[in-house]
């Protein structure tokens, strides 16, 4: 069944209004290329949560600090060479904040379960 934009608008006026409106938009402020790590990061609360590479990068103030973190974790064998290369590429192409907003001091205390 092929519908053009006008046909969809006539048949589904409320859906069209929702899709075209700004009211229900959700911003994306970070990118995680490793799904399991991302799923762990959004788990409820921070009980038993171990910060990953992205968490460390999000504490950085400069791109140079992030590069240092990535290099350090790769050198220690905590991340694979390929993953480190992907992180460096994202850092150079999309910038430091593409990993998410800066995590300030006491982030886990303020954002954990209460």
Describe this structure in words.
The protein has 114 residues and is mainly α. The chain has one domain (30-111). It has helices spanning 5-11, 13-20, 35-41, 53-57, 63-75, 81-94, 107-111. The longest helix is centred in the last third of the chain and has 14 residues, at 81-94. The protein is elongated, with a radius of gyration of 20 Å. The mean pLDDT is 81.
What is the total number of structural domains?
A: 1
Strand content: under 5%
Structural class: mainly alpha
Query: Overall mean pLDDT score?
Result: 81
SSE topology string: HHHHHHH
How many helix segments? 7
- Bulk shape: elongated
Helical percent range? 40-55%
Regions with pLDDT < 50 over 5+ consecutive residues?
none
Rg on CA atoms, Å: 20 Å
Count of individual beta strands: 0
Taking the sheet with the most strands, its summary is: none
Report how far the terminal alpha carbons are from each other.
50 Å
Task: Please give the structural blueprint.
Blueprint: H1 5-11, H2 13-20, H3 35-41, H4 53-57, H5 63-75, H6 81-94, H7 107-111
Helix pairs in contact: 1-2, 5-6
Which properties best describe this structure?
mainly alpha
Give a brief rundown of this model.
The chain is an all-alpha fold and 114 residues long. The chain has helices at 5-11, 13-20, 35-41, 53-57, 63-75, 81-94, 107-111.
């Amino acid at each position: 069944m092929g519908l053009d934009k006008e046909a969809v608008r006539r048949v589904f006026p409320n859906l069209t209004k929702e899709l075209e409106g700004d009211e229900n938009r959700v911003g994306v402020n970070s990118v995680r290329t490793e799904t399991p790590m991302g799923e762990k990061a959004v788990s409820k609360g921070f009980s038993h949560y171990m910060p990953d590479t992205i968490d460390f990068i999000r504490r950085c103030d400069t791109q140079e600090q992030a590069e240092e973190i990535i290099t350090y974790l790769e050198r220690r064998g905590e991340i694979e060479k390929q993953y480190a290369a992907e992180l460096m590429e994202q850092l150079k192409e999309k910038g430091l904040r593409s990993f998410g907003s800066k995590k300030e001091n006491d982030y886990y205390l303020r954002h954990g379960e209460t």
